[in-house]
Amino acid sequence: MKQLFFLRVEAVGRCLSAFMAAAVVAIAVAGCGSSQERAERREQTRRMVAEGIANRRLRIDVNSMSTLRYGTRMVSADFYVELKGDTLDSYLPYLGQIYHSPIVSTPQGLNFEAPVLAYTESRPAADLTRIELYARTQEDTFLYIVEVYSNGKAYVRVRGQNRDAISFDGDVNW
Fold first, then answer.
1. Does residue 141 sit in the same domain as residue 159?
2. 153-160/128-136 β-pairing
3. What dihedral angle (degrees, nearest 10) is formed by the CA atoms of 99, 105, 107, 110?
4. DSSP of 50-78, one letter per residue?
C-alpha cells in the first residue's frame, strides 16, 4: 500500500512539473508578444504626436498644475489646451495673483479661444518638440510654452504679462 502511494505521488509530481514547465513557456511566449505590442504602441504614439505637431492639431489633457505661490495640485480630467491650426483653445484652471485686470471685461482667466499671434517650433532633443505661441485676450497677452515628448507626455508653461506664471503636466490626446 505504501509503495502504491509513493508511485501516485511521484506520478502527480511529474504531471505538476510538466504543467509548470508548460506554464513557464506560455508566460515567456506571452511576454514576448506583449513587449512587441508595447513597441508597436510606442511607435504609433510617436507617429500620432509627430502628425499632430506637423498639422498644428494637438490636444493636451491636463492632470496637474504647479504654481509659484501654491505648489503642485492635481486637477480634474476636464481641463485641456488645444491647438487647432492658428487658434488656441485654452480651458485651464488658474491659481495665482493677477497684477492688473481690465475693469470692463469679465474675468476669464485661462479659459478662452483666441488666434495664435506668433508660433515657433524647435527640437531641443530627439524625443522633444518645444512650441512657443502667443495669444491675446481682453485681459492679457499670454505666452504658452508647450513641450511635447514623443511618448505623448506634455508640459505646458503659461506666462501672462499681468499675472503669475503657472505650469501644467498632461498627456497628448488624439
1. yes
2. unpaired
3. -90
4. HHHHHHTEEEEEEEEEEETTTEEEE--TT
E-only strand ranges, the chain: 57-67, 71-74, 80-84, 87-92, 110-125, 128-136, 141-149, 153-160, 166-173
* pLDDT tens per residue, range 101-145: 667 556 677 999 999 999 999 999 999 999 999 999 888 899 999
**Distance set, CA 96 to CA 21, 89, 129, 163 (Å):** 60, 20, 27, 7
C-alpha cell at 98: 493677477
Q: Are residues 147 and 62 in the same domain?
A: yes
Question: How many folded domains does the chain comprise?
Answer: 2
In a shared domain, residues 60 and 83: yes
CATH number for position 94: 2.40.128.410
The answer to pTM > 0.85 is no
Residue 138 lies in domain: 56-173
Q: In Å, how far from its chain's centre is CA 34?
A: 22
* CB contact at 8 A, 173 and 61: yes
